[in-house]
Amino acid sequence: MNSALAPGKIILFGEHAVVYGRPALAVPVTQVRAEVEVWPSEYRGVWIDAPDIRLKAELKEVEFDHPLAASLRTLFSELGVDPCPNINIRIRSTIPVASGLGSGAAVSVALARALCAYIGQPASDDQVNRLAFEMEKVYHGTPSGIDNTVITYAKPVYFLRGQPIKTFKPRKPFTIVIGDTGVAASTREAVADLRSLWEKDRRTWDAIFTRVGQIVDEARRAIEYGKIRALGELMDQNQDLLQHMTMSSLELERLIEAARDAGALGAKLSGAGRGGNMIALAEPSAASVSAIRDCLMSAGARRVITTTVG
Ligand code: PMV
Predict the structure, then answer these.
(1) Which pLDDT tens digit goes with each residue over 263-300?
(2) Does the domain made of 170-309 have the CATH classification 3.30.70.890?
(3) Ligand 1: which residue has its CA nearest to atom 1?
(4) Is 206 tagged catalytic?
(5) What is the pLDDT of residue 212?
(6) What residues does ligand 1 touch, defined as CB less than 6 Å away?
(7) Could you write out the DSSP letters of every residue in 258-276?
(8) Which pLDDT score, from 0 to 100, does residue 131 have?
(9) Domain spanning 2-166 has what CATH number?
């Protein structure tokens, strides 16, 4: 049996603009994870068992354009595995689907690692990242690559599309409270909608994306100098621009407002938006974290996760 684990992730700053070549900051979230196990099957075929999405079937029986089946076919073809081995693949994940926490990318990373090990070609992080990016294209169409990168290396990343990975190190640890709206939203659609806005008025949108990129660079400096208050303000500024991009929603706004009322230093959506998760920056005290958590739950969050960066 070969198995692999991959964490979830949050984007701290810069989602969407990152697709247009601006930088973004993301960190792994180890409180949630995907796990893949691969072992030989006595029956012919690739037997998938993914209880979280209620999928139990042989690969050929799964709808051709099912994202998991399509990304598995991509993986086999990238690895030059033909014919497919007779195997069982069990996929389990505690990462909510379509919520901005990187569920698809985490499954891709864990699948690539486990399958490479199974076929006797254990892959380096760089190889896993490349394979997972090819699989991400199946889920997202035109992904920037940020999700597979932060999840593969499981480190905080300062991401620029097409550039080698750069990490960053906080001077002081800071705590992020993550609130789930419970609303599933399609990253592919959100990215496509923004692209059509951009196509109609490139000059305006390019200027907005450039401003987001500046916020990201300021945020990185704030993190590296331990300026937590400044970081909160930058989160609010990034949220204003995401709202302008039409990526917020009533549910997200409700949770963001609740977190700010509870004393968060800043709050914004995280990931593609229109649903999924928001993040709030807590004051460095347990009381602040629990006040934000309580307010998020009373404002209708489905689930709250706390994670410390640094
Ligand atoms: O997969 P999500 O929901 O975390 O969104 C990814 C972030 C985007 O910037 C919206 C898209 C991308 O490919 O970078």
Answers:
(1) 999 999 999 999 999 999 999 888 999 999 999 999 99
(2) yes
(3) 100
(4) no
(5) 98
(6) 11, 15-16, 18-19, 100, 102, 140, 143-144, 146-147, 187, 191, 271-272
(7) HHHHTT-SEEEEESS-SSS
(8) 97
(9) 3.30.230.10
Domain ranges of the chain: 2-166, 170-309
Kindly report, residue by residue over 12-64, the tens digit of the pLDDT.
999 999 999 999 999 999 999 999 999 999 999 999 999 999 999 999 999 98
| Paired tokens of 234 | 């930058």
- Average pLDDT in the 73-92 region? 93
How do 46-50 and 87-93 pair as beta strands? parallel
Residue 46: φ, ψ to 5°: -110, 105
Q: Which numbered atom of ligand 1 lies nearest the CA of 276?
A: 3
Task: Compute the distance between CA of residue 75 and CA of residue 237 in angstroms, rounded to an integer.
Answer: 39
Distance from Cα 164 to the centre of ligand 1, integer Å? 18
